[in-house]
Amino acid sequence: MSSRNNRRRQSKIDRRAIARSSQVRLINILENPSQYDEQIVLSSAQHLVKISQRHRLPIPSKARHLFCRRCLAPHRYGENIRVRILAGQRVVTCLECSSIRRYGGGPQHHRIQNP
Ligand SMILES: [Zn+2]
């Protein structure tokens, strides 16, 4: 009579550990896009976000800059993103969906004023 609950026996900890190992695998693909098919790299970014949302895990910090957070396109430097330093901040523009994200620079009153 135990077969009914077999699939539910996996604990929350195990589930998250498995999800984390999947994240590592997907990030590995995103870090070495030249070794994989373009379609695989694209779906890796989508899977990474989906897994992280489903298991309520943060996306590892090293993976945050590997793809666009809006259209999930994997970033290829010089091809589909533009990176500029502006007023002490790193400004990343995705050329696929033209979303702009700014990183670093600290609080607003610490930044160099925009000319
Ligand atoms: Zn984008």
Q: What can you tell me about this protein's structure?
A:
This protein is α+β, with helices and mostly antiparallel strands. It has two domains: 1-67; 77-115, no CATH class. The protein is built from two helices and three strands, in the order ααβββ. It has helices at 12-31, 38-54; strands spanning 81-86, 89-94, 100-103. A three-stranded antiparallel sheet has the order 1-2-3, with no helix packed on it. The radius of gyration is 18 Å and the shape is globular. The model has no long low-confidence stretch (mean pLDDT 87). Zinc ion is lined by residues 68, 70-71, 73, 94, 96-97, 99.
Write the SSE topology.
Elements: H1 12-31, H2 38-54, E1 81-86, E2 89-94, E3 100-103
Antiparallel strand pairs: 1-2, 2-3
Helix pairs in contact: 1-2
The structure holds zinc ion.
